[in-house]
Automatic annotation (TrEMBL):
Belongs to the peptidase M14 family. Residues 250-273 have a biased composition (Polar residues). The active site is at 201 (proton donor/acceptor). Residues 248-290 are annotated as: Disordered. GO terms for biological process: proteolysis. Transmembrane segments: none annotated. Residues 274-290 have a biased composition (Basic and acidic residues). PANTHER family: CYTOSOLIC CARBOXYPEPTIDASE (PTHR12756), CYTOSOLIC CARBOXYPEPTIDASE 6 (PTHR12756:SF9). Its cofactor is Zn(2+). One of its GO terms (molecular function) is zinc ion binding. This is Peptidase M14 domain-containing protein. It comes from Megalops atlanticus.
Amino acid sequence: MIAESSLLARAANLKPEREKRVVFLTARVHPGESPASFVCQGIIDFLVSQHPAARVLRDHLVFKIVPMLNPDGVYLGNYRCSLMGFDLNRHWQDPSPWAHPTLHAVKQLIVHMNQDPKVSLEFYIDVHAHSTMMNGFMYGNVFEEEERVQRQAVFPRLLCNNAPDFSFSSTSFNRDVVKAGTGRRFLGGLLDDTSYCYTLEVSFYSYLAAGSSAPVPYTEDTYMKLGRNVARTFLDYYRLNNLIDDNKPTNHSNSSLEGQSYRQGNSHGNGRNQELEKSERRIQGSKGDY
Ligand SMILES: [Zn+2]
């Protein structure tokens, strides 16, 4: 077993600094999975905000986001398929420009970026919603090399520290034949071994926080909060926290909100992330959690 700190260092520093580091996110390939859109909204709102952590993320990483991979299916109210009746998440291997146009275009973009020597495509995360499982969790790929397996587990472990609704124990790694045409599986084979591809699932209905046996129903706000926690986990992954210009003590007037937010948003968090929560609330002002 390799120590987590050294794994993190190796995972985050395998590529030269000069390369443009890209995180590619997609959502809503399955049109009925509307929670995925709220998670994606949380990611986008945070990344474009004036939050100091968001600025650091924008300075160091490029986020490419396709919030809706299946817009015609969403428009029609389909649960899983596109206008032409395809489950797009089974056609990544050979998408057709006329039958799967959005998928074809996104795949072309990813393949093109992957061939650009100035670009380092390091993460692909496809956001879904799950109809039977609780919590947020991830699916990843299976590799022969043990060190790569452990490096792949780093991001979900860090996310588990930041998000009380994210479950590392429900996170799993598989190579099922039936999943071969998914984005996560296909791109896992396409990108090199220092890139990570995940499906991020979030429950349609509720989550269990660590140490609790009472399910908490998800709301639009808590889905968006998971999205923010996904975004800020890249700070931990790339060890950018010390670059955030926000260590001044604060006298926030609404102490009950602070306490509540620590419990809800940071039950396993550390002091550094509590500082992030504080600064986030200070920027939000009277609006509270955004
Ligand atoms: Zn799905």
